[in-house]
Specification:
Elements lengths: L14 H12 L6 E4 L14 H29 L1 E6 L12 H21 L4 E8 L2 E2 L11 E2 H13 L6 E4 L3
Parallel strand pairs: 1-2, 2-3, 3-6, 4-5
Helix pairs in contact: 1-2, 2-3
Length: about 170
Amino acid sequence: MVGVSRRATGDASKRETAIRAIETAERLGTIDLLINCAGIGIFGPAGSYDDDALTAIINSNLIATINFCELLFPRFKEHGGTIVNILSTAALTGKANETVYCAAKWGARGYGEALKAEAKGTNARIIAVAPGGMNTPFWPEPRPGFMDAADVAAAIVDAIERPVDISEIVITRR
């Protein structure tokens, strides 16, 4: 498609950005898969977060996920589609020096669980993925013992393509 923009940029926690991104994707074809993978990590002990850090963590890890789901879930319920929310093992277990990050990820997990309840009997499918540490640009430098992102991505693609309902995946290193 000549002249069709394939990119929408902006703050994913803003509804307008989500709308623009979906409109851009629709120009390329039907949307039947949403993968929410936005997020930042700002870490430190409880009591060390300022307002800007709190807002950034909650907006990127929770509000952005909600925005995209709110726009696409009604359509997926009717016409079919899969939502994959990439969380973290921080959505399952509290971790020292990650209090606000854990709170945001637990919130995203709770939202996804509620979506699963609403999706019962519809054409929508919700998959929560809780990967452990992965070597990605999320971290400033590679970390020994962390998983390769390509291996984690392959497991996620496998879950999406399976004909059975996989609603939650926890991926950790052996």
